[in-house]
Amino acid sequence: MKALRNYLDKIKPNFEEGGKLGMFRSVFDGFETFLFTPNTTSKSGAHIHDSIDSKRTMTVVIIALIPALLFGMYNVGYQHNLAIGTNPGFWSTFIFGFLAVLPKIIVSYVVGLGIEFAVAQVKKEEIQEGFLVSGMLIPMIVPIDTPLWMIAVATAFAVVFAKEVFGGTGYNVFNVALVTRAFLFFAYPAAMSGDKVFVRTTDTFGLGTGTIVDSFSGATPLGQIATATTNSTVVTDALGNPLSWMDMFLGLIPGSIGETSKLAILIGAVILLITGIASWKTMLSVFFGGIITASLFNLIGTTSGMSLSPVDHILLGGFAFGAVFMATDPVTSARTERGKYIYGFLVGFMAIVIRVLNPGYPEGMMLAILLMNVFAPLIDYYVVETNIKHRLKRAIKE
Amino acid sequence: MPENYIIYFSYIMANVIKLKKGLDINLKGKPSEILLTGGNSTTYAIIPDNYNGITPKVVARQGDKVKAGTVLMIDKTYPEIKFVSPVSGEVSAVNRGEKRKVLSIVVKPDKENQYEDFGKKNLSSLNGEEVKEAILNAGLWPCIKQRPYDIIARPNESPRDIFVSAFYSAPLAPNFTYLVKGLENDFQTGLDALAKLTKGKLYVSVQKDFPLTLKQAEVFEFDGPHPAGNVGVQINHIKPVNKGETVWTIRPDDVILIGRLFNKGVADFTRLVALTGSEFAKTGYLKVIAGCEINSLIGGNIQPSQGHVRIISGDILTGTKATENSYLGFYDNQITTIPEGDEVHEFLGWAALGVNKFSAGHTFLSSLFGGMRKEYALDARIKGGKRAMIMSNEYDKVFPMDIFPEYLLKAIIAFDIDKMENLGIYEVAPEDFALCEVVDTSKIEIQKIVRNGLDLLYKEMN
Questions:
Q1: CA-to-CA distance for B390 and B402, rounded, in angstroms?
Q2: Model confidence over A168-201: pLDDT tens digits?
Q3: Contact A38 B448 (CB under 8 A)
Q4: Same-domain pairing of B399 and B253
Q5: Do B359 and A50 count as a contact with CB atoms less than 8 A apart?
């Protein structure tokens, strides 16, 4: 460590203003603070500070995402094997998925961080860590067959127009990862929905070649519900076997890469709640809102979507993933404590409404969260307004 | 109901206010309750930067012979606010910086320490104006601060109420019950004097088991973690400041000074100062006169645990960084020493399991191993880079007032006066935000923002 520190100290002058490599100052600073906690001491105000910083915060979120990511990789291989009717064993299955997902992670990080680094350099600021989480979320909320170039374009769009133009991490109105997905969804709808994109049927780097079995259908359960002609709520896996709640909970079903396993998401949720990084108020209210809304639709029950039980709703699609990892984004969600209940409830409510009433959108979570991102400041406004009114009233009374 | 029943009843129903929000930080170097020797300073100084809300005008000249209580400096706007020499001797320097800003007025003490005689006074025969005049003349007025703005009280205003917090709750803070021992009489006289300055009430907040029975004051008991001892928090719970109202506040040590003025007729700035913090070989209390050199308090008492030492005049949350050559702050009754920490290079600190890391949150393993109950020796590193506000509800947890700290802070940054007023700017002082600054993930200099906001707002409104 000491040698590394000495080396950094030796090359540091090059990166300072006016140094040979001055144009890479932010990048150097980014790597330096990544390797060594900054030794800056307080100049004003409190002399001691908590050990937490934004790097730590983001790290915790990434750790919470890892179970869902690893499971997602395995599931990619598993679904592929179902499609071609083979079973090469656990490791081959996982490696297939790993190789299929890894390029997406790399593309997302390279594009997003590249832009972040450049912007930080131009603005002469420190590199912000926010994208470390967004960059991990993006590959997890897209179908496995999304082309890499699309991810690159969408990521660039989201980072520039949803984040940097607003001022960077902490100032964005919309969740950056969801804007990426929304961009993909509206710009390339064919690549983002339907029954062809959620299961990889071709090989990955030459691995897993085979022909598709006859009974195969790559439709996601929610896709099946949206296109159902009766009001039956039976959903099936890729080979047509009906899915139980346990299957949905464990997550060996078609879907976006990170969203299928509720078990893995639950582990992530526990990590986020124990560490206090995500708000339990938001998380709980999303589920509550979803369950109430789905129950109300059950009372009507004239279509397949309306008949789908609340448990099915929260076990299918991206509901749980969105509730745990996206709705709780502190920057874009409501920031007041009372506001979090309202915000969360409405996210859950909107997600189910979109799912049930709009057959064009089998999954409503993305749009629900983005919509509520817009309303979060308004919700907070009214919560803060009660404090203001209360203060004015106090002044008049006396 | 017979009258003594009512008294008994109100005694049981004593004013107890329990606070849940806040944070007690358990640090190494709490002051042991022993009297240390030392504190003979070779010079004493008045530092204009110690005071908020004044424009200094120096009236003493180098070479002047002064007594303790002789005026050295006044305020330009309110010339009746006087700043006096704490000791007798000779003015040895008036130091100025850029744009002729007064940095310090230094007095070299003589041996005998003579006092200006302001005359013993019997408070019962004085009215409010006379009490005010006596305090102004003796140079003790700067002890009284006002909300809004957290500045020295404007003498021409009449406060709605006066608030005194009779305990300190900040980490490593001195124990007022120890400080007041033997000075109970002066403390009560001080309260008697303050009670005359307002048509409203004099409120004194104490901790459980405060030994004195106080007269002339309405006593509230506060229970809970820091900042329960902050007078701003107490005001917010007892009777908050509304727009257009002014309340005065005064630290309990300064109440003793005022009491002494009336009991003895002199401006005697002698007080107990606590030596606290992990870098002191011996913690304890020293009897000193305000404005002394920090050097005289420390002597050879420093025992660095690692590299550089940070010396703080005041408490660890709100004090000012000092050097051995600087002077004890006017309002400070504590010197804190901690490791500076600037030589520490922590490898991959963000990834550490953090069994021994200090954190109010739960992202480090330390929260499972003792957490905040454990005793820490912390250095002055801010341990991260400055960011925009990211996490929500961080400040609220340590801000026990009916105010949204994050929104108020944003209004201050934007300097939106209407919003600041609406969100409670008139009720706060920078010290109320100190814990927010400690726990902040984004490492924002919150107290500085609040101070600048208050100063700007004062300029705008006056």
A1: 22
A2: 888 999 999 999 999 999 998 888 877 778 888 8
A3: no
A4: no
A5: yes
Q: Are residues B126 and B257 in the same domain?
A: yes
pTM of this structure: 0.92
Q: Does B332 touch chain A (CB under 8 A)?
A: no
Of B116, B133, B195, B114, the C-alpha closest to B162 is B195
pLDDT of B350 strictly over 80: no
Please give, rounded to a whole number of angstroms, the shortest distance from the CA of B118 to a CA of chain A: 37
- How far, in Å, CA of B246 to CA of B27, rounded? 36
Please give the Cα distance from A112 to A158 (Å, whole number). 9
Residue B25 in domain: yes
* Distance of alpha carbon B385 from alpha carbon A54, whole angstroms: 8
Chains A and B form CB pairs within 8 A to the count of 213
* Model-level ipTM above the cut of 0.95: no
CA distance A119 to chain B (A): 15
> What is the pLDDT confidence band of residue A211, given thresholds at 50, 70 and 90?
confident
Provide the residue type at B172 as one letter. L
Domain region containing B241:
3-30+120-264
The crossing angle, in degrees rounded to 10, of helices A130-140 and A54-84 is: 10
B343 touches chain A (CB under 8 A): yes
Are B9 and B158 in a shared domain? yes
- Tell me whether A377 touches chain B (CB under 8 Å): no
Chain B's closest residue to A167, CA to CA, is B388
- The residue out of B212, B246, B264 marking a domain boundary is B264
B90 part of a folded domain: no
Nearest to B349 among A37, A43, A334 (CB): A37
Judge whether A3 is closer than 8 Å to chain B, CB to CB: no
Q: Per residue in B398-441, pLDDT tens? A: 999 999 999 999 999 999 999 999 999 999 999 999 999 999 99
Identify whether residues B22 and B148 lie together within a single domain: yes
**Residue B232: inside a domain, yes or no?**
yes
Q: How far apart are CA B122 and CA B138, in angstroms?
A: 16
Last-in-domain residue among B224, B243, B264: B264
What is the tally of structural domains in chain B? Answer: 2
